Amino acid sequence: MSRPLRVIALTHVYPRFDGDPSAAFLGTWAGALRAHGHDVRVLAPHDAGLTEVDVVGGVPIRRVRYADDAHETLAYRGEMHRIALRPPLGPPLLGSFTSQMAMALRRAVRRWRPDVVHVHWWMPGAVIARLALVDVPVVVHLHGTDVGVVEGRPWLRPLAEWALACTDRVEVVSTSLSERASAALGVRADSLNPMPLDLAVLTPAERVLSLDTPTVLAVGRLVPEKGFRELVQAVAGLRRDVRLRIVGEGPDAEVLRLLADELRVRLELPGALPHRELPAEYAGADVVVQPSHGEGLGLVVAEAVLLGRPVVATDSGGVRDVLERHSLVRPGDVATLRARIVEALEDPDLPAVMRAARRVRTALSPDSAVLRTEQGWTEAIRIHGLR
After folding, report:
1. Using CA atoms, how far apart are residues 347 and 214, in angstroms rounded to an integer?
2. Separation CA 308–CA 204 (nearest Å)
3. So what's the pLDDT on residue 1?
4. How far is Cα 274 from Cα 326, in angstroms, rounded to an integer?
5. Which residue from 184, 268, 323, 348 lies 20 to 30 Å from 170 (Cα-Cα)?
């Protein structure tokens, strides 16, 4: 790219502080772009206890208030699509959220005159951009949950079509998501642009393993679509004693505890951890399992193989770009998931892990993401100029 660009990154979730696991990949993405000279600034919703103007990881952020602290509950919890539709407070809260974010985006564009607005997740980001009526090139980046919302609620497709109609470019994080977006949204992705991994953080830690009790590790939001209930069931049927450790937070925590108690599974739920602590978690795992029903990309699998850990994963979509498809388990298939965990514990396929790690290091490096993003911005500016 011939010159640095001024860019507003519009998102409903972004790391709130250094080490926050909330969409940590966006912090890696924005930081890498700023390191290459681009003036990327983030526009995100406010959350209780935060300042309205901040800098996290060297990236300037403006946070938009849409309610009082007690009611700012839509963002940063991984459940916006559920909370927003839950009466009586959900719909009016969503209305305030979208209108306040749209007004903030319009003000930011008018005052700062960016070259591009880069929207992450069409819902709510593309809706906000359309409501803001900004005359600036717009890139919309689909991540998976935003497509899944329409797959589960087809009546939202007209809203998606309306929101995406005035965008200049649509990008997706995986090959599978491109196919899903075409089917669910009726939109053709212009390019594949997976989010980067923080390679500086993801360095192998010293392994501390128990010779007596293997550890099965999973990482992610504690919500039904992550498949952790099936994972507990799979572990319960193992013929050896293992420790199941699920790193993350969410509404399914108590459900998982009760299920584990019922099935006599040794379950540990340490909550969400800073991203810099994950390498140590991976290092302590004998096998990492991603049992999701659907993933836009599957960054947990990518991180695990990069750190050399054996992985068991479901055929949840985006993970096909990381692992060989024949090795994947059908989502919800507890018996096969259990069998693959046994295989990984007894005879891990380390050559396959090394092959996947090479693909990940090439495709998901920050430098690769910067190059893909720059190319997308250039094309969006060109297309917008033709309108």
Report:
1. 13
2. 8
3. 62
4. 33
5. 323
Return the ∠ at Cα 189 (arms to 330 and 360), rounded to 5°.
55
- pTM exceeds 0.70: yes
Distances (CA, A) of 199 to 124, 334, 361: 30, 33, 8
Task: Give the C-alpha separation, 323 to 112, whole Å.
Answer: 42
Q: How confident is the model at residue 2 (pLDDT cuts 50, 70, 90)?
A: low
Q: Where are the alpha helices (DSSP H) in the chain?
A: 24-35, 80-83, 90-112, 127-132, 145-152, 157-164, 175-185, 228-236, 253-263, 278-283, 299-306, 334-346, 350-363, 366-386
Contacts of 2 (CB under 8 A, 6+ apart): none
* CB 298 within 8 Å of CB 274: no
Q: Catalogue the long-range contacts made by 132-137 (C-beta closer than 8 Å, 24 or more residues apart).
A: 132/102, 132/103, 132/105, 132/106, 133/106, 134/105, 134/106, 134/109, 136/109, 136/384, 137/168, 137/169, 137/377, 137/380, 137/381, 137/383, 137/384
Q: Using only the alpha carbons of the chain, give its radius of gyration.
A: 21
- Amino acid in the structure at residue 245: R
Beta bridge partners of 247: 219, 271
Q: How far apart are CA 30 and CA 16, in angstroms?
A: 14
β-pair type (59-64, 39-45): parallel
Q: From CA 193, how far away is CA 119, in angstroms rounded?
A: 13
SS3 for 225?
helix
CA 305 → CA 64, 138, 145, 300, 345, distances in Å?
37, 34, 23, 9, 15
Instruction: State which H helix or E strand residue 7 sits in.
Output: strand 6-10
pLDDT at 48 over 80: yes
